[in-house]
Amino acid sequence: MEATQTRKIKKNPRLPRPGRIVINAVLLVCSLIWIYPIVWTIISSFKPQADFFKEQLTLLPGSVTLENYARVWSKANFAVYFLNSVIVTVFSVLLVLIMTNMAGYVLGRYKFVGRGLLMAIFLSSICIPLVSTLIPVYQIVKGMGLLGTRLGLILSGAGGAHVVFLLLFSSYYSTVPNELEEAAKIDGCGFMRTFVSVMVPLSSPISTTVIIMESLWTWNAFQLPLILTLNNPTARTLAVGLYAFKGENTVDWTGICAGGAIAMVPIIVVFIAFQKFFINGMAGAVKG
Amino acid sequence: MSQHAIKAVRSPIQRRNRIKLNLWCWAFVSLTLIFYLLFQGYPILCSIYYSLFNWSGMTSNMAYVGLENYRSLLNDSVFWGAFKNSFRYMIMVVPLEVVISLFFAYLLNDEKLKLRTAYRVSLFVPVVVTASIVGIVMVFIWSSNGIINYAMKSMNLIDKNINWLGNAKYAMQTVVYVSVWKDMGTYMIYWLAALQSVPTDVIEAASVDGATRSRTFFSVVVPIIAPTAGIILILCTINSLKAFDLIQTLTGGGPFYATDVIATFVYRTAFTSDMGLPRFGYASAAATMFGIVVIIIGAVLNALKGKLQDLQ
């Protein structure tokens, strides 16, 4: 990719100046439109509740307050929701990372009996809409006695085939030279040792991508957590908690914005810090 | 003779090693397989089973009714409304999303562009924020007091405030706009990946031959990115049929079922008491029917893509 970039700079004919100005103007306006709702949410979360309807459109609030945060954090359970989101995300991501790394390793490196069939089954799962499995998953979690618990959210959140991650890991592992494995074997490493001490460290770029993408997906998950915590508000994550909050406080928009910001800001920070991994992972999904 | 002997000596060990290797491989995929079967494979079959019962889901009281649920679904105008809306939503979202994301990707695929990263991050940020939360915030932004009405009024595009989400006439298109805004970045990244695979000397050659920017795009770039375009179209179509988070939080399927899709229909029928007692069996029948349709569409699109690639 480095090579293409430098080549492009050298060879691509320069656009005439007016053309470049138009393109920049279009992109600038669109970028502002695209981030406006998010910026508006964050700014509104600092506006005093009483001023909200007076200055709802202004991006520079007359006065700034943290009262909205204090209100939703302690009175509206957002401290609990936040903790739940963190716990569910951390453990779901760990589970998914371990299982897709292991499965991707053997799918990418070994032609074992049944590999083709497994791949086909996993790939076909892309088309299954969540709505078609929602009711049975609810029943399964209920049968495990995990309805309205964080563990129920963690396990069901880690469910599914994670096709994108399997493809990322398997295509990565298929490029690792055989010599490494043979050297490990000569050193007396068995199958497990070779995987844990040679392969896992090698796969850290893919692991990082998987951690970031799965964190975003779990943090943002709504449909499953919504139905699995209907009976127990204290197990809700931020995505579900704000929906319930809005149902009860329809006009508390500064509170809604504060709750929304609590959910959005961490994920935006993570994204901006790790955007390379995220974008490469997504791009890899189409190429694979 | 000696070769045979060697084979006879080696093969049991080889075979044992082979079996051992196969066992290791299966052990390594087993965790993924279990989670897949438990939360996706088995549930899809379960859904078909539930659909044959009259069952509220609240009790263990299940009465076998055969295909009765399907028969009532076919006569349920709310279900058909939701079914049609799922596809109406798809038909509106997919072209808008695919074209707009390609447009931005094409503009951004220019290394000389200053602020390239800033533009890309801004256009992509809606993808990473929580859909359900965006949906709630957007309820205000598109409300009579929100910025959309204010902006359109000050540009003289409308003279009276429009209740975008509360008016059945505008609700669906508003949901579509919000979805396109939210997910566009995903497809933009896909397109950028495709565009970066176009060799620069080919573009260079075209411009030496005097092709304009748009001519180069349609005659040189498009044929090269066509295979990825197929994947992008399939993903976009399937994802649009899966939509739930935004629609549930923006409108909950309303007003008067104007934005009701199968996902919101199933949620309402199975998990809320908006329409009387929850009906797990009935909702499962709707979910199953829709699931089968989506899987067929996915398979057909995939086959079409294969056919087109063979032709090239």
Quick summary of this structure?
The complex is a heterodimer of chains A (288) and B (312). By secondary structure, chain A is an all-alpha fold. Chain A is built from 15 helices and no strands.
What key phrases describe this protein's structure?
heterodimer, A: 288 residues, mainly alpha, MetI-like fold, 15 helices, disordered N terminus, B: 312 residues, 2 domains, two-stranded antiparallel sheet, 12 helices
Textual characterization of the structure:
The complex is a heterodimer of chains A (about 290) and B (about 300). Chain A is mainly α and about 290 residues long. Chain A has helices spanning about 1-10, 15-45, 65-75, 80-110, 115-125, 135-145, 150-155, 165-175, 180-185, 190-200, 205-220, 225-230, 240-250, 255-275, 275-285. In chain B, strands 1-2 form a two-stranded antiparallel ribbon. Chain B has helices at about 1-50, 70-75, 75-110, 115-130, 130-140, 145-155, 170-195, 200-210, 215-240, 245-250, 260-270, 280-310; strands spanning about 55, 65. The termini of chain B are far apart. Chain B has 2 domains: about 1-40; about 70-310, MetI-like (MetI-like fold), CATH 1.10.3720. Chain B has about 300 residues and is mainly α. At the A-B interface, helix 1, helix 2, helix 4, helix 5 and helix 6 of A face helix 1, helix 3, helix 4, helix 5 and helix 7 of B.
Number of DSSP helices of chain B? 12
Q: What sort of overall outline of chain B do the alpha carbons produce when their principal axes are compared?
A: flat
**Could you tell me the mean pLDDT of chain A?**
86
Strand content of chain A: under 5%
Number of domains of chain A: 1
Give the CATH level 1 class of the largest domain in chain B. Answer: Mainly Alpha
Number of helices of chain A: 15
CATH 4th-level superfamily of chain A: MetI-like
Specify Rg of chain A, calculated over alpha carbons: 24 Å
> Describe the biggest sheet of chain A?
none
